[in-house]
Design a protein that fits this description.
Pfam families: PilZ. The chain is built from one helix and seven strands; from the N terminus they run E-E-E-E-E-E-E-H. It has a single domain, classed as Thrombin, subunit H, CATH 2.40.10.220. Strand 5 and strand 6 form a beta hairpin. By secondary structure, the protein is mainly beta.
């Protein structure tokens, strides 16, 4: 029996594209994300145990694309419920500050917050 995950994950209602940092070719989309890693949804299975150079292209308030580069190691890869797609779990080697900021912003954006009630 597989132990339950203790890492808090945040599901994204839409997907952010992940690129290979070396080739700039799309690898897939983020399915969920945490400070420790992410799940990638792709059209090809990923090589388990391999380290990948990844890049996110995040649109900024200034209208410019901000590049977030990081390394992640594939922990597992399996076929998705959607035919022709694969889910792969990645552990970040070291999370750069831009990645940490992005996760915090996504967590804040997608969290339910208590709104003050009017009497």
């Amino acid at each position: 029996m597989r132990p339950h995950r203790r890492i808090e994950r945040h599901q994204l209602p839409y997907y952010l594209k992940v690129f290979n940092r070396i080739t700039d070719r799309p690898m897939g989309y983020i399915g969920n994300i945490s400070l420790e890693g992410l799940m990638l949804i792709s059209e090809l299975p990923m090589l388990v145990g391999a380290r990948f150079d990844m890049r996110l292209k995040i649109p900024g308030h200034d209208g410019q694309l901000h590049l977030v580069d990081f390394y992640a190691t594939c922990q597992w890869s399996r076929e998705d419920l959607t035919p022709g797609h694969f889910d792969s779990g990645f552990a970040l080697v070291t999370a750069p500050a831009e990645y940490v900021q992005m996760v915090a912003a996504l967590r804040h954006y997608f969290s339910f917050r208590c709104l003050p009630t009017s009497a």
